[in-house]
Amino acid sequence: MELKRVVITGVGTVNPLGNSVEEYWKNLKNGVSGAGPITRFDASLHTTKFACEIKDFDPLKYMEKKEIRKYDLYTQYAFASSEQAVADSGIDLEKVDGDRVGVIWGAGIGGLQTFHEEVRAYKEERPRFSPFFIPKMIANIAGGLVSMKYGFRGPNYTTVSACASASHAMIDALNTIRMGKADMILTGGSEAGVNACGIAGFNSMRAISTRNDDPKTASRPFDKDRDGFVMGEGSAAFIFEEYEHAVARGAKIYAEIAGGGMSADAYHMTAPDPEGKGAYLVMKWALEDAGLKPEDVDYINVHGTSTPLGDIAEPKAILKTFGEHAYKLSISSTKSMTGHLLGAAGAIEGLASVLAMRDSIVPPTINHFTPDPEIDEKLDFTFNKAKEREINVAISNTFGFGGHNATVVFKKL
Q: Of the listed 54, 103, 104, 163, which one is catalytic?
């Protein structure tokens, strides 16, 4: 069968750099760090005392007061970004065929704060759990509730693949529309891991930075002195739409979703394959799916978490995938500014890729101070300062614990 083309017609976000798309993009271009001391809870007993928190988030802009206690933060973030994306798309909710619109969402963990609060209360205050415990906690509830809000009765589910969750959701959304099973899909991801469980859990794994004396420079992708990622939180949402459907209603189009790739490292629970085999395969297959050659790509928003092993493996995979063209690419890790949004990473970084194409600006990888001899710095990592560049094709990489890899390909129309 002939596959349908899929485009982006609406976007929205709340994240550590802003509570709107344009605020986020302004701070991203300017190399602003979203990191600072944790305010959400008392982190004094934790090894890491900082994170990239969302600032000035007001859930009352997106839901009624009585609903707030029913929804974990990760769901509240999903509501916020989704409402922005729906509004941005110009969809007429009175006329849209809800049977042909779905919600495919990504979340790596779901309601971690809810889990923590309920277990604490059970132990310290009351020998029972709230009736909202399970529906607040489960990772699929955000997508379900968003579909209820808008009456979107098409395909509805959540992908859970650690830090690749949102990218997998976006690829599934692409394929669902490609095959004619929906006209539009609201897709993206949300996560709210800045809480005692999230920080303590990743501290125990020695996965996050402990640079408490200087949080804003703690996320240092590809720097010799990197010591782990910085926890972030938030959400990004997209309206994916069948191209002819979008044109027929006169929709604004940001970019085409040209393809996606998925692979597994099949190597280790938390560490990447040291030679980047899975990362190579996922980029190779993503380009094949998009019908593009390596030399067609202009920009890669890399996974680039600021971890000792991951930041070595990914550049190896890029060199294997792109050969000599790798040195002509622009590369950046926006996690240096937003922190790591875990299951929402693919969405927020996919949004950065789309905005980079729109405005012909490559956002920087900030906090680079010392070269790492194990990383080929002839590659253009866009260190410390954004740069202007025409971008016709961009790809976004996300790699998750368990060896889950996903790459999304964006193309300028």
A: 163
